[in-house]
From TrEMBL:
Pfam families: AraC_binding, HTH_18. The keyword Mitochondrion does not apply. Residues 169-269 form the HTH araC/xylS-type domain. PANTHER family: ARAC-FAMILY TRANSCRIPTIONAL REGULATOR (PTHR43280), HTH-TYPE TRANSCRIPTIONAL ACTIVATOR RHAS (PTHR43280:SF28). Keywords: DNA-binding, Transcription, Transcription regulation. SUPFAM superfamilies: Homeodomain-like, Regulatory protein AraC. It comes from Cohnella silvisoli. This is AraC family transcriptional regulator.
Length: 282
């Protein structure tokens, strides 16, 4: 999943929301207070926000002045070919370590970042495969720029806005290691974190906007999509049980609910796309 929106002026509703993908948000101009979790950012032109989408967030803007921003939504899975290269820079570290973080770009750094945005927009406007490929490469360059800007902060101990958010982060860290276990249940989280099930459920929903098991199921379905992409011969049944589902019907129902296609149809679509791509090669 990759979406780039350059210098959007579209009006927005001030509604708190969350999503599974990561986000790079750049503020060009306007008057905006951006609420992310427990933090309120009073934005100035040149402010760049790295966002872990599962945290509730909402921009509150002054409609009397133009509100201009550029946004990238992306799934880290698209970066795997670049992250696996020899001597690859861990460009996802700022997102993974900070979850949500603001950079205040000014002068030369602001000019450099805005040049990257313009280059990405130019590639996007081509509307062909070469443009799409160069757009993704320019985005990887953007992530290197962001990593470079975050180096000093990455070396400093992270301070959480509140005990509540720190606890939710601990839940997410635990789920990252256990989401595919078929015996995952609230008692396991309760025992691991030494907090009651009801408290964990309450604050997780409060901070992220989804329940713990909605998060787990979204994570599993996203991983299923990645497995089908990287392992074309993997059966739907094998993916179902590998990701912790006990019943194939449950997996298929959730997959269609989140993706819009059954897992079988999704695999078929991927196969057709690969055939079309291979057929277009010289």
């Amino acid at each position: 999943m990759f979406e780039y929106i350059y210098r959007s002026t579209a009006p927005i509703e001030p509604i708190f929301h969350s999503h599974m993908h990561y986000e790079v948000y750049y503020f060009h101009e306007g008057k905006c207070n951006y609420l992310i979790g427990d933090q309120i950012y009073n934005l100035a032109p040149g402010d760049l926000i790295l966002m872990y989408g599962m945290t509730l967030h909402c921009p509150k803007v002054d409609p009397a002045v133009p509100y201009i921003r550029s946004i990238v939504h992306f799934d880290p899975a698209i970066l795997r070919p670049y992250l696996e290269l020899p001597q690859a820079v861990p460009v996802m570290q700022p997102f993974e370590q900070f979850k949500n973080h603001r950079l205040c770009l000014r002068e030369k750094e602001k000019e450099e970042f805005e040049r990257i945005l313009v280059v990405m927009h130019g590639h996007q406007q081509r509307g062909d495969k070469v443009g799409a490929g160069r757009l993704l490469l320019a985005f990887v360059d953007m992530l290197h720029f962001i990593y470079d800007q975050c180096l000093q902060s990455l070396r400093e101990p992270r301070e959480f806005p509140s005990d509540k958010e720190m606890t939710v982060q601990n839940v997410i860290n635990l789920l990252e290691d256990t989401y595919a276990e078929d015996d995952l249940h609230m008692e396991k989280l309760q025992n691991a974190l030494h907090l009651s099930k009801s408290y964990l459920a309450k604050i997780f929903k409060e901070v992220t906007g989804v329940t713990i098991f909605e998060y787990v199921y979204r994570k599993r379905i996203n991983e299923a999509k990645i497995l089908f992409l990287l392992q074309p011969d993997l059966t739907v049944t094998d993916a179902c049980f590998r990701l912790g589902f006990k019943h194939l019907a449950h997996f298929s129902r959730l997959f269609k609910q989140h993706v819009g296609l059954s897992p079988e149809r999704y695999k078929k679509q991927l196969k057709e796309e690969r055939s079309d791509a291979e057929g277009g090669k010289l």
